[in-house]
Every structure is written in structure tokens, then in C-alpha cells.
From TrEMBL:
One function term, GO molecular function aspect: transferase activity
InterPro entries linked: AB_hydrolase_1, AB_hydrolase_fold
The species this protein was found in: Rhodococcus coprophilus
Pfam families, per the entry: Abhydrolase_6
Protein keywords: Transferase
Protein name: Acetoin dehydrogenase E2 subunit dihydrolipoyllysine-residue acetyltransferase
Lineage: superkingdom: Bacteria
Every AB hydrolase-1 domain range: 71-278
Amino acid sequence: MLTRSPYRCPGDDSVIHSACAGMLSHWARPVDEHIARTSLGETYILSIGEATARPIVVLAGGDLPAAGLRLLAEEFDNSSRVILVDLPGLPGGSARTRPASEIHAAYGRWFVEVLDALGLPSASVIGLGWSASVAAAAADVDRVDKLVLAAPLGLVPRARWHRALIPGLQWRNEPNLENTQRYLQALAGSGYQPDDPTLRWSCRVGAYCTSLTGLPRIGRSVLQRWRGRPVEIVVGEQDPLVQVSSLRKLAEDMAIDLQVVPGAGHLLAVEAPARLAEEVFAPRA
């Protein structure tokens, strides 16, 4: 059953879809656009690189859409085909509704449908933000060559009181450029300055989209399927949303590699894109 939407009002999705199209004008490399029809509705997909190159699937996590992940995509060379996917039900270019119940099970099946639509037997996968829990919920773990969970939300409890809380409320209440910049800087590590496309995108998200804080955590039994498999968790040292201590305990319990990026916050795709690209190819510790 598809009932929940990330948008405040009917028609707001068209504003966000237009914003995604505008962000593509900043890409230097040629970008192919696809629409996959899935059980969760139309799924918007971007890809760069040759079809025969090694596939890297990136699940956009709500902070930035697929069209806003240019810096991360550019860190991969021509030996990789980078495929960027907007989740249905999150701000981006895909369908506006998300599952009303059994949300991770539904997204886990959806992810396999996306791989099927792309004709990929398997791929390395980066899940960003809340999409990290979606990647971890993949219905068939054998379809994932390596899993990188970046700034993951939905694995452990979120931090309740943090430095981005008040700026986030101000951004939601009055989403102008000044409040948006203040919020992004609170999410990120020290010294981060958002570029103009990121700033304007986030301003629109504040104006037209609802909060994702109510999305559920993934079940521990679903995570246990990854024990012994090539999985990396990457988190910023200064991430205000993630309880790094809880994430470290989870990693230890499951024998998963945890990498902490010094000086970085929650926006790893724009703060440390080279580090994320490196983790895809890094051998297991």
C-alpha cells in the first residue's frame, strides 16, 4: 500500500522534479537519464560511464537527489559505470509515495527490481543517509558485490539533541537561503561552504518537503544477513545525526568495518566524495 509522501502539498513534487533537472546543468560529463517502472512507482535513474564498465549503484538518501551527487560521481574514472538512483518516497525525481508499512521489506524488493531493470546481475552499492538502511534491506544480498553505508541513518538510534536541531527547525519554519546555509553548515563538518546548487536545492526541500525523521530503523535480523560479507560503514567524525558510539558497537557486533572520516559531518557525498569512492574499492580490513 502506497500512501505516504515526502511533499507538503499536492503539486510540490513537480517543483522538486524541476529542481533536479536544473541541477543536471552543472554536470560536465554526459549523463543518461532512465525511468524504471517498479512496484513503488517510477524510479528516476542517472548513469555515467560505459555500459560495460564495472557498475557502482548509489542510492540517494534525501539530503541530495541523484542529480545533486555530481561530486561523488566524478570521483570514479572510466573503468566504472556510476548509476545514481532516487528512492520513491524521498525528495528527488522518483514517484512521490513510499510504503505505509513494512517499509524496509518493500524497499528491499524494490532495490532488486531496480537491478533487474538495469540488467545487472550484481553491483557494488553505496547507500547514503537513510538510503543506507534501504541498501542493507536488499532482498537478495548475493546481488551486492560490496556494500558501503555512508552517514547511515536507520541503523542505530538517531542523536536526539545535536547542533543541527535548532538550525533545522529554523530552516523548516522559514526556508530562506540564509537559514538553509546555516542548517547545512550545522549538518556538515567544520569549514563547510555549500555550493550554489546544493544551497538552492536544500532551500526548496525545506519549503516543499516534509521531515524524514520519522522513518523507521531496520531490524537487526535483516542486518545480520551481512555478517561475513564485504561491508563498510563510513561516518563523519562530526556527524550530528548519527550516534557514532552506537554505530561502532553495531560494527563490532557484526564484524563490519567502520571508517570515521576526520573533520567531516553528515554530508559525506559533498564533504568527502573521494573517500567514499575509495571505500568501494578498498579491500576488507
